[in-house]
Structure prediction request, 206 residues.
Amino acid sequence: MAGRFEPLDPDRHAAELFDANSEDWEGRLWTYYNFGPFPTLSEYRAWLDVARANPDRLYHAIRDNAQGQAVGVAVYQNWVPAMGTIEIGGLVFSPRLQRRPAATEAMYLMMRRVFDELGYRRYEWSCDSLNLPSRAAAARLGFQYEGLFRQAMITRRRNRDTTWFSVIDRDWPALRAAFERWLDPGNFAADGRQRRRLADLRSGAG
Prediction:
């Protein structure tokens, strides 16, 4: 297992996350959020304490097992159990997590929990329409584009259009199989490079 997710605990995770985020020299992690960057650990820890106390958002730390530390954050939010819908959001992947197998595995595990353990029928992803890396990540992970909400909110004093994606329960069996084939150790060369792309496995070309 390359990565896993666990409930975020500021006592355990704040220093590790701050250290990992500090490699984002230009502050790009925070471009599309109304929070951050955080110049000091104490400021980041204070923000985590407040954010984690929000009963409407369940914060999780993403751990890269090869590095042995928390290197990212993801949030379950906007859940409506009666409708079987839930959203993944608040994604902050430090440079130590970006483009690593642990990032994909954590996203797979969080999706598997939503569908296989909690029995939800719809899993949502939304992002600033200008956030091209987030849009590309959603598509790579199998989320289907659904549309654009114009001027859905204000981010850093500008109008934000929000792009929406989803995975629904009938998408999940094929998507789960593609994830598991991609995550198989045999899909990686000795130097860690993937042999088959997740997109190809999802399309049946791999």
